[in-house]
Amino acid sequence: MTSKPQAKYLHDYQPPTHVVENLSLTFELDPQHTKVTARFILTAQGDTSSVILDGVELTLNSVHVDGQVHTNYRLHDTGLELFGLGERAEIEIVNTISPGANTSLEGLYLSDGAYCTQCEAEGFRKITYFLDRPDVLTTYNVKIIGPKQMPYLLSNGNKVDSGELSDGRHYVCWEDPFKKPSYLFALVAGDFDVLTDQFETRTGRKVDLQLFVDKGNLSKAPHAMTSLKKAMAWDEQRFDLEYDLDIYMIVAVDFFNMGAMENKGLNVFNSACVLANQETATDRDFHIIESIVGHEYFHNWTGNRVTCRDWFQLSLKEGLTVFRDQEFSSDLGSRALNRIDAVNTVRTHQFAEDAGPMAHPIRPQQVIEMNNFYTVTVYNKGAEVIRMMHTILGEAGFQKGMKLYFERHDGQAVTCDDFVAAMSDANGKDLSQFKLWYNQVGTPKVSARTNYDDQQGEFTLHLAQSHADNDPVEAPLHIPVAIELLDKQGQVIKVPESTAKQGKVLELTEKQQSFVFCGLESEPVIVLLEGFSAPCLLSYDYQQHQLLHIAKFASSDYARWEAIQQLYKAEIKTLVKTQAFSEYQLPECLTQALSMLLDDLSGDLSILAELFTVPGFDALSAEYTPVPVAQLDQAISTVEYQIAEQLKPAWCAAYSQLQDDGSLDAVAVAIRTMKNKCLFYLAQVSDSQIQGWIQAQSESHNMTLKLGAIRAAVNAQHVLTQLLLDDFDKQWQSDLLVMDKWFALQASRRDERCIDNILSLYTHPCFDKANPNRVRALIGAFTRTNPRHFHREDGRGYEVLADLIAELNQVNPQNAARIITPLLSFKRFDETRQGLMRAQLEKLARLPELSDDLYEKIDKALN
Ligand code: TRP
Ligand code: ZN
After folding, report:
1. 646-651 long-range CB contacts below 8 Å, 24 or more apart?
2. Ligand 1 pocket test, candidate residues 102, 117, 120, 378, most atoms within 8 A of CB
3. Cα–Cα–Cα angle for 839, 842, 847, nearest 5°?
4. What region holds the Aminopeptidase N-like N-terminal domain (predicted)?
5. What's the pLDDT at 49?
6. Is 296 considered catalytic here?
7. Ligand lying closest to the C-alpha of residue 293
8. Most CB atoms closer than 10 Å: which of 88, 420, 663, 765?
């Protein structure tokens, strides 16, 4: 029995014992025995004469101090302790590693024959012994020696030397002038196709842009390159930030645990987040690529130039950079659509995390395995917290804060407190209460009551806030509550600046607070928490007619979408209660409102498609304990079926009218989105004409349309399903990223054979359990999109997931711990399912050599 993994605590933070002056690294690449030579100068901060260097799974060859062989050291499980150092010591360490045997995709590993690294968060210690913590910053010189079959030997910064060796190998030397922590180090070696371009910064500097992709994939690279140039220009315009090196490289690799990594000057990307052409990628993929390329680029300032003091501060760079990439997408595309997207993520996934055993603040206070904290809470709720500051300070005030932040902290490793202090000081605004957002856990609730005094024409809004049961923070939070008042005719009522900032933002700072609106002619309808101005649950007793009023008249598309979501939600909840599925009909007023919407195709069709998107199982299950699995699933399908049936002629009319020009501009994208929405509903009420449409659209050369047709068929269990899936399989086996779409479709099938089918797909020639993209496509999609089978009452869904996790525990602990999430919230389900889920977790808990990643999550869930 090994000892239990120990948590680290934020309050135990100690500054590093030593500073490092220039790290020089030499790599002699070899799949089994890569030799790493590290040279650096350590200077003690205080009277320390020993130092502990982090290092795991390394073979130590030699240690030299000040040029002499040094034997005064002790090897620990997770590091190397050197004794007898002077105040200043020149260290040389040689060790070997085995990238070919590294399946964890952390440290130095092989991805389809190419060497690459992933060092965030604590992967550098799998490469060499070092102070592997983000507050130890230094410059790097890197020499890579590799075989000539690998023409590209890449690392951070500028190429300063290269040459041939007598033994047939070659080498390249790199110098990164910017000090950086070890998590931003990167090395890539391999043979690639390269797309090159150039960006001229606003001060006229020319930056070489290079995008490295697997051989044969050049035609799928231009979109990522265009996105990069847009991101560089946008950061200059909106944030006044210019790129700082003369070269920017992006490498796409097939084996990668996450989306992408912002290593200084050398981003490494999951190929799924780079490669796209219209035949292989959907419009959604194009959008995601643009936002991730932006995200990693924006890290150059928010993450690299100013980095985190310790990993508890992760949201300092991630929350802020997600906020920045959301703004990038919103400025370049549709603000409303991007907001709907972001809100859906928070409401479905982040709120679920809040309600489960892994609930944590955006700045966690205790961590066992840091990789477990790259979460929707740190990233997406973190971005909401930044957005609230933006709402409170306004764009100009926020930018003043950013400017001060960089003036104060460029080149430093800092904390979330430092960020808020810059915002506060630049604006003379007290944000001390606001800072509670960094400690609070769970989803805060805002409850609203209103009353109207007819005589006085006075409308009063009573707001109350309460915190989640698992929240240690009891004091009231500082919550920006955006509102809108609509009069009887649907006109927006002006609210004076003295009541609401920018005419719409109320600052809720007390447990209970009332706001009075005077001079009204009749009782208004109020839109609350408009634009999701705070990551809270709202409780307000909306009447159906009020929601319909908002859906019709609210000034923002977001508010209209939100109102319709509430209307759908109310229908589904009623159905779950009555279980009168067969008699159910959409209420007349809702059908009318929807049919009015559908009759007018002159507006933004992407928004229109969102208005016809019914909230999903994950979003709704949060409303119940225990989750009524079967009823909820059936209620959602029933409401969708009604929308299909009641509006069938309108869906047909719309479908036959919509014609896109095949381009990627917003209008064409919107038309395709709406076409797919039409087919989604039509497939459920199919006739021979509709079957013809599905068949024809599935043969499109545009992946958005093709997939839309097949997805509609799969969802409706249409007779064409098997045929379309088989055709797709035959056509795309040579493109694994496309096959991921097919695996996800298979995983979402509703028929009884679903699970047997999934198990048989493990032996499909394209499937590989060691590849996180494949696992996410098949098993991730299964647990996310197929509640009916994942939550089967015989427990087979849980078993399939747990068995795969057990296999991945050793192979790729990080990925194993990612896919376990749906099992953790077993307490939200009925007793039978709880028992089954718990049994699987207990089975996993008994695994020999359970990884820290899994241990932390399972232990929290079970205890
Ligand atoms: N910093 C990366 C980002 O958000 C996240 C990331 C990429 C990561 N790869 C990782 C985090 C591996 C942990 C482990 O842009
Ligand atoms: Zn990031």
Report:
1. 646/585, 646/586, 646/591, 646/594, 646/595, 647/591, 647/594, 647/595, 647/598, 647/681, 648/681, 648/682, 648/685, 650/595, 650/598, 650/599, 651/598, 651/678, 651/681, 651/682
2. 120
3. 130
4. 23-184
5. 81
6. yes
7. 1
8. 420
C-alpha span between 493 and 156 (Å, rounded): 55
CATH number at residue 521: 2.60.40.1840
- Sign of the C-alpha dihedral, residues 755, 758, 762, 763? positive
Give DSSP secondary structure letters for 269-292. Answer: EEGGGT---TTTS-HHHHHHHHHH
Output the pLDDT for position 1: 44
Which pLDDT does position 2 carry in this prediction?
58
Length of the chain: 863
- Check which CATH number belongs to the domain holding 811 and give it: 1.25.50.10
Q: What is the Å distance from ligand 2's center to 593 Cα?
A: 41
Distance CA 847, CA 863 (A): 17
Q: Which residues, at least 6 apart from 753, have a Cβ–Cβ distance to it below 8 Å?
A: none
Residues of the domain holding 800: 733-863
Is 291 contained in some domain?
no
Structurally, how many domains does the chain consist of? 3
> What is d(CA 283, CA 402) in angstroms, rounded to the nearest whole number?
33
Q: Give yes or no for a contact between 372 and 15, defined as CB atoms under 8 angstroms apart.
A: no
Low-confidence residues in the chain, pLDDT < 70: 1-2
Residue 464 included in any domain: yes
Is the shortest distance between the CB of 296 and ligand 1 below 6 Å? yes
- For residue 319, the ligand closest to its alpha carbon is 2
- Whether omega before 626 lies within 30 degrees of 0, making that bond cis, reads yes
Q: List the one residue out of 301, 536, 487 whose CA is nearest residue 406.
A: 301
Of 553, 573, 589, the residue that ends a domain is 553
Helix ranges, 455-503 (H) = none
Residues 292 and 279: beta-carbon distance below 8 Å: no
Q: What CATH number does the domain containing 78 carry?
A: 2.60.40.1730
Evaluate whether 431 touches 420 at the Cβ level (below 8 Å).
yes
Q: Is 258 in the pocket of ligand 1 (CB under 6 A)?
A: yes
SS (H, E, C) 46-87: CCCCCEEEECCCCEEEEEEECCEECCCEEEECCEEEECCCCC
Q: How far is ligand 2, taken at its centre, from the CA of residue 772, in Å?
A: 18
Is position 333 within any domain? no
Backbone phi, psi, residue 166, to 5°:
-65, -25
Q: What was the pLDDT predicted at 437? A: 98
Tell me the C-alpha distance between 360 and 367, whole Å: 10
DSSP 683: G
Give the pLDDT score at 474.
84
pLDDT digits over 412-456, tens only?
Answer: 999 999 999 999 999 999 999 999 999 999 999 999 999 999 999
Q: Are 199 and 174 in contact (CB under 8 A)?
A: no
- Answer yes or no: is the C-beta of 121 below 6 A from any ligand 1 atom: yes
CA distances (Å), origin 841, targets 816, 833, 854, 855: 13, 12, 10, 10
Using the CB atoms, write b or e for 777-787: b if 16+ within 10 Å. Answer: bbbbbbbbbbb
Among the candidates 553, 575, 599, a domain finishes at 553
Nearest-CA neighbor of 173 among 165, 442, 181? 165
Provide the pLDDT for residue 475: 86
Q: Which of 182, 184, 258, 316 to mutate for ligand 1's pocket (most ligand atoms within 8 Å of CB)?
A: 258
> Which tokens sit at 465?
């806030």
Q: Whose CA is nearest to atom 3 of ligand 1?
A: 261
Q: How many CA atoms lie within 13 A of 567 on its CB side?
A: 29
- Residue at 540 is within a domain: yes
